[in-house]
Design goal:
- By secondary structure, the chain is α/β, with parallel strands linked by helices.
- It is built from 15 helices and ten strands.
- It folds into two domains: 230 residues, Malonyl-Coenzyme A Acyl Carrier Protein, domain 2; 67 residues, Alpha-Beta Plaits, CATH 3.30.70.250.
- Strands 8-7-2-1-9-10 form a six-stranded mixed beta sheet, sandwiched between helices.
- Helix 9 crosses helix 10.
- The longest helix has 23 residues.
Length: 311
């Protein structure tokens, strides 16, 4: 069995998608549709930068999605591959869950782009810059990470945001609380604790205004049953019902990304091969979580051609 997976924020870079667009009219069509849906030249920003503008949450989120979908579409249209024939499940990390839903036909491309633009704007607006922070804790499991977060809280929001793999957990919350957690992390057994270069504290209760905004946006969005089940971030379980998908996407804004558990759950369901589209971030996390599985990252035309030969 096989799962197609899609990366989250942090995988953006100037030049992303450019070589693919130059090589494939199918990829160009994806970028053009996203540009039209957003009313901006996002593809030009992806190709030329500047990096600080691309890194803005409202731009990075639809850009990462567009790049991954372009990669998948080239595989499908030029390689004659149908997702429903070659993938048993899809999943994505944070914003990547939207990409997964788009890939599986649950949300159309233009709607996905607009939802992610809105999501990025809402997340940025929820907490003033400098008020919140996030940090990566290395060499700790979920229980130790939660203890570090609890120690730093002192009455402020400080909680686990991303359970990425057995040795990497991200915490999120108020800036002062995250600073305290980072300062005490080694005392609690962490190898390293690194503040992340993000502009808002994602996946924590401080994001509630963004969750409210997404509840309104998603209420008006058409969501179909996906071609294959989607493993949801907040439950680490497969879902196909559109109303449940809608609800979980709202909960995801403030909830923990249970990526490690999702990988293990997919493995338990029989998945032996994970294929990451549009990045090289998730495959290493998957491998650290489930060393027995096969992982592949698909970014370039050469990657796509190699995957076609193996599918």
């Amino acid at each position: 069995m096989r799962a197609f997976v899609f990366p989250g924020q942090g995988s953006q870079a100037v030049g992303m998608g450019a070589a693919l667009a130059d090589a494939s009219a199918v990829a160009r069509a994806v970028f053009e549709e996203v540009d039209e849906a957003l009313g901006q030249h996002l593809s030009r920003l992806m190709r030329e930068g500047p990096a600080e503008t691309l890194q803005l949450t409202e731009n990075a989120q639809p850009a990462i999605m567009a790049n991954a979908i372009a990669t998948l579409r080239v595989l499908e249209r030029e390689g004659g591959v149908r997702l429903a024939d070659k993938a048993d499940f899809v999943a994505g990390h944070s914003l990547g869950e939207y990409t997964a839903l788009c890939a599986a036909g649950a949300i159309d491309l233009s709607t996905t782009a607009r939802l992610l633009k809105h999501r990025g704007q809402a997340m940025q607006a929820a907490v003033p810059v400098g008020v919140g922070a996030m940090a990566a804790l290395l060499g700790v499991d979920l229980a130790k990470a939660q203890a570090i977060a609890d120690a730093g809280a002192e009455g402020e929001v400080c909680t686990v945001a991303n359970d990425n793999d057995p040795g990497q957990v991200v915490i999120s919350g108020a800036k002062a609380a995250i600073d305290r957690a980072v300062a005490s992390a080694k005392d609690h057994g962490a190898k390293r604790a690194l503040l992340l270069p993000v502009s808002a504290p994602f996946h924590c209760p401080l994001m509630q205004p963004a969750a409210d905004a997404m509840a309104t946006a998603l209420a008006d969005a058409r969501i179909n049953a996906p071609l294959v089940p989607v493993f949801a971030n907040v439950t680490a379980a497969a879902v196909s019902d559109p109303d449940t998908i809608r609800r979980l996407l709202v909960e995801q804004v403030t909830g923990m990304v249970r990526w490690r558990e999702s990988v293990l759950a997919m493995q338990a369901a029989g998945v032996e091969r994970f294929v990451e589209f549009g990045g090289k971030v998730l495959a290493p996390m998957v491998k650290r979580t489930a060393p027995e599985v096969e992982t592949t990252s698909v970014v370039t035309m050469d990657d796509i051609e190699a995957l076609i030969a193996r599918l």
